[in-house]
Design a protein that fits this description.
The protein is α/β, with parallel strands linked by helices. The protein is about 45% helix and about 15% strand. Keywords: Transferase.
């Protein structure tokens, strides 16, 4: 199929991993894919973004910045329309972004189906964190795009309920979670080690480091522990919370047992995760499909994660992970200590997690096949070229 991929991503973070991985997988499946998005995306390095956009957001007051986001849709729509005229796609696939109406407008004009990937209810999210001023306009824009899409592809069932509540009929909703490329990870996980085999057990976290990830609580629990197998902590990633976490580790007197690697190239991530004995997801937003979970599973690591509906869509307590009650103080660290003391449990959870990825085909190539099947179905329904 000929698929026109529309996006408005400015930075090379987890969003970019999703975009690049799915596009590559679609192409490997034999589809022609043309990507249309901000020119700054192609110039951004890993973890980087548009300095112009960041500067405008700082300089403009909230409502003006949001109107500028909406106004950006004019050149974005023109760019997408030109690409559609040249490429003659069978379908448009768009990564949803607030105030981004281009895919809905161009798909309708061209008479081709629109598949809309949704990773977050952005109007709600930005309202909750206080960064949204034009809330009624944002809710209208979000509802407009969701309802205009032929198929909406949220990344979790939890998020699918948000989409349905906005008025999208359930038959037009298909959940497609994040994925992984298993070629990046050895088929067999390294065997679980016991304490005293030359180095401490490694607790690990990989990803962009933000305050809400809850790593400060991990550091405090780490500093307070007494006894048990020796542990170290590796935090691989960059982000606004890193400096504060480094300062906290020094304040708590554990800086010699905590390593911050900074931003790691994507090709280094499998090696880093392969060195973890226990992989941490200390917190997660309630509707997300965290990329790191799939990376941990593919690497066959023993995972500690919060017990919440979106993560239970992928993980099963005491089968593929230890899930802790995020409302109960000390629950996360209790799971860590249990795994630290039980190498057999670490190995069984890691092996089962890897097998779950394979059994359910939680891969980018699997997602590409699902997306292409949906695109064919919608193109056929419209009488478009198969």
């Amino acid at each position: 199929m000929r698929i026109l991929y529309s996006h408005r991503i400015q930075s090379r973070d987890g969003q970019g991993v999703h975009l690049d991985s799915l596009v590559a997988a679609l192409r490997e499946e034999g589809h022609e894919v043309r990507v249309v998005g901000p020119p700054s995306y192609d110039r951004a390095g890993l973890g980087g973004g548009s300095r112009v956009l960041s500067g405008l957001r700082r300089l403009l007051p909230g409502p003006a910045a949001e109107l500028a986001e909406l106004a950006y849709g004019v050149p974005a729509t023109r760019r997408l329309a030109r690409a559609a005229a040249e490429f003659a796609p069978d379908a448009i696939y768009e990564r949803y972004n607030l105030f981004h109406l281009s895919g809905a407008l161009v798909a309708r004009r061209r008479g081709v189906p629109l598949l809309l990937e949704v990773n977050a209810p952005l109007a709600e999210e930005r309202s909750r964190f206080g960064s949204l001023r034009l809330r009624r306009l944002a809710r209208w824009a979000e509802s407009f795009v969701w309802r205009r899409a032929d198929r909406v592809l949220p990344v979790t069932e939890v998020l699918a309920s948000h989409v349905a509540a906005a008025g999208v009929p359930e038959p037009r909703i298909a959940v497609v979670p994040n994925g992984i490329d298993l070629r990046d990870y050895p088929a067999a996980a390294s065997p679980a080690r016991t304490a005293g085999e030359g180095r401490p057990l490694v607790l690990g976290f990989v990803g962009f480091v933000r305050d809400w990830h809850g790593l400060d609580a991990v550091l405090r629990a780490f500093a307070a522990r007494q006894g048990g197998p020796p542990l170290s902590l590796l935090i691989a990633g960059q982000g606004p919370a890193r400096a504060g976490l480094e300062a906290l580790a020094a304040e708590l007197g554990i800086a010699d047992r905590v390593r911050f690697t900074g931003l790691a190239p994507r090709e280094e991530v499998p090696r880093l995760i392969g060195g973890f004995d226990i992989a941490l997801q200390p917190a997660a937003v309630p509707y997300a499909s965290p990329l790191k979970i799939f990376e941990y599973m593919a690497a066959g690591r023993a995972i500690v994660a919060p017990d919440q509906p979106n993560l239970r869509e992928v993980l099963a307590h005491e089968r593929t992970a230890l899930l802790f009650d995020p409302e109960r103080p000390g629950a996360l660290w209790g799971a860590v200590e249990r795994l630290a003391a039980d190498p057999a449990l670490r190995e069984s959870l890691g092996t089962a997690a890897r097998a779950e990825v394979e059994r359910r085909d939680l891969t980018w190539s699997g997602n590409a096949r699902r997306v292409a099947a949906i695109a064919r179905e919608e193109a056929a329904r419209r009488g478009a070229r198969p």
